[in-house]
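WP5 quarterly update. Target: Reductase C-terminal. Source organism: Amycolatopsis rubida. Length: 373 aa.
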Amino acid sequence: MSPVGSVLVVGASAAGLATAEGLRRKGYEGALTLLEAEPELPCDRPPLSNQVLNGQWEETRAQLRSAQALDALDAAFVLGDAAISFNAERREVSTASGRVLHAVVIATGVGASLLPARREVRGTHVIRTLGDAAVLRTELLSARRVVVIGDGALGAETAATARQRGRPVTLVGPQTVPMARHLGALAAGQLAELHRRNGVRLLGGVLPDTLHTRDGRVAGVRLSDGTELEAAVVIVAIGCRPATEWLQGSGRRSPLAPRRARALAAPGKPDQRGRPGPRRRRGHPRNRRAYRPVPHFWTDQFDARLQIHGIISPDARAEIVEGDPRAGRFVVRYTGSDGPEGVLGWNMPRQTRLRRVELTGRYTLPRETADAG
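Structure tokens (predicted):
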């Protein structure tokens, strides 16, 4: 096989950037291009809804790499030019500006899910880029009322940040309390109480029905139960969608795409579907064990840092094994039919790390399973 003279990485966020760095680290010296639909350099997304939005960080601090590190890659960054189609046979990518680029690594990741009318209504926001966070931060300086749609990790964290900036906030979502699916009833109940103590209005078990507008700007939200909410700012945090529209009509589905998506989805907060990472092998070649790293994510809300390890099933039994919720510091262990399956720490990072060891056996596969795979 002839050596590859150039590589195009479609997507310049965490996965794409890690791919480019891996190529250079493994000795690839050819031309390297990263194509990105967003007009800005790659950033670390978890701080966008917290430290960047509340003004604690300058925007440059959330960039994934320094200017010097990006220069050292000796790569061309093509920003603000989305991939719109892919010819799998020729490995050609066509872009919105008319470019045609070759030799492809697919790392476009996911984009924010939107409400149907969101693009046409001023005052509605998602938080996906540094630009998104900067614009929203400015609007929060004067917004009379804020409605956050979506009661998962991003929605709850954004609601907390907006409230800390002094805005009246209503958090709306289909769950009975925020993050119930991620945390279970015990910890989610504690989180709901934390939000209420800090002045967030929680409306659970409802969905948005209609956005009300005035002169092209959002003015309110009608919910599925008929509730009417005034809103100067609406923040949409209803999940994500694969950014793969540009692959439609390519003639065939690349078998690499799904594997690559799983392998590169690890940085920062996890895939919202909560799937464990890919199987890997470690150790001496004659005694290797396939393993899956313990899934984890964290979130900072008001004065609480929550660290969650494992995947919590709906019927898992939750038990407080360290600390006391009344003191604002505790650890919860979740036990399913096959034993411990999750650990949550609330302002107890050291104890949470120690309890995480109890989950290792669940995600490290037995040797006979590894051999069979």
